[in-house]
Design goal:
single chain, about 280 residues, Rossmann fold, alpha/beta, 11 helices, Hypothetical Protein Tm841, Chain: A,domain 3
């Protein structure tokens, strides 16, 4: 057997995790001096309330090397090959900690692949790996395919307000002031494992989202058509449903799935962030 595992930044739905027997190690969220586990005892709504009440931004943290060793050891006990892919190595120390745990465990059945992504960008790779397991590929074959697919992973988001990015030190005060004043919404895109601002939209969030969707779907001609995620931190569920139906109306994807971003992503982007994520063909 081959067991696929990841971290809580994966942001796919619970039923997808259960149906594919995916193991998840929760990342850490820190409010003041108290540590929580993403997806276990902290929710995005609690984070948004905390920021509104205190004006302070929560922090996120990777799990320790020892945590990863314990996580991997439990999975290896059954004699399975274990494949781990989590948040991009350029965005968190989690990847390096996982690699160090792998080195210390010195178990040839443990494999680690850099997703070069986040959120459901990781989720797409994890589900792809799970499909390869069902097709009977070996662990080494799956890892090679994952490494190639990680370079063909389209993950991007458009952000309503820059408050969280500003509080987290990811944009200047003047940039925040100008963007909020002019209603500029940045498009954040994963490029070789790093988040880059690749475009800006002007106007109300619920209006520019459709322009953003069009741009991202027109950007690539080699879209892998089986699955697309609309991942968000929006409180307006009807709006999200409309966006999902809009993407479905394009008749590009076999399946379009709505996913709520977890606490790790919410800590850095804030409310009213929405992204379209999908894989590309070779």
């Amino acid at each position: 057997m081959i067991r696929i595992c990841t971290d809580s930044c994966v942001d796919i739905n619970k039923n997808q995790i259960e149906e594919n027997n995916i193991a998840v190690i929760p990342l850490c969220v820190i409010l003041e001096d108290k540590e929580y586990l993403d997806g276990v005892n902290i929710t995005p709504s609690q984070i948004f309330s905390y920021v509104k009440e205190t004006g302070k931004l929560p922090k996120t943290a990777a799990r320790s090397i020892e945590d990863f060793k314990n996580f991997f050891s439990t999975l290896l006990e059954n004699g399975d090959d274990v494949i781990y892919t989590g948040i991009s190595s350029k965005l968190s120390s989690a990847f390096n900690n996982a690699c160090q745990a792998q080195k210390e465990l010195n178990n040839g059945r443990l494999h680690i692949v850099d997703s070069k992504s986040l959120s459901t960008g990781i989720g797409l790779l994890v589900l792809y790996a799970s499909s390869l397991v069902k097709e009977g590929y070996s662990a080494n074959e799956i890892c090679k395919k994952l490494e190639k697919q990680a370079n063909l992973n389209q993950a991007s988001f458009v952000v309503d307000k820059l408050d969280f990015l500003y509080k987290g030190g990811r944009c200047s005060a003047m940039a925040k002031f100008g963007a909020n004043l002019l209603k500029i919404k940045p498009r954040l895109e994963l490029v070789d494992g790093v988040i880059e601002n690749t475009a800006k939209y002007m106007g109300k969030f619920q209006s520019i989202v459709y322009k953003y969707i069009d741009d991202m779907l027109e950007k690539h001609k080699n879209i892998k058509k089986d699955l697309c995620f609309i991942t968000h931190t929006c409180s307006d569920s009807k709006f999200v449903e409309q966006v999902v139906e809009y993407v479905k109306s394009k008749n590009i994807f076999d399946e379009v799935v709505s996913s709520i971003a977890g606490s790790t992503i919410s800590c850095h982007c804030g409310e009213n962030t929405l992204g379209i994520l999908y894989l590309l063909e070779k």
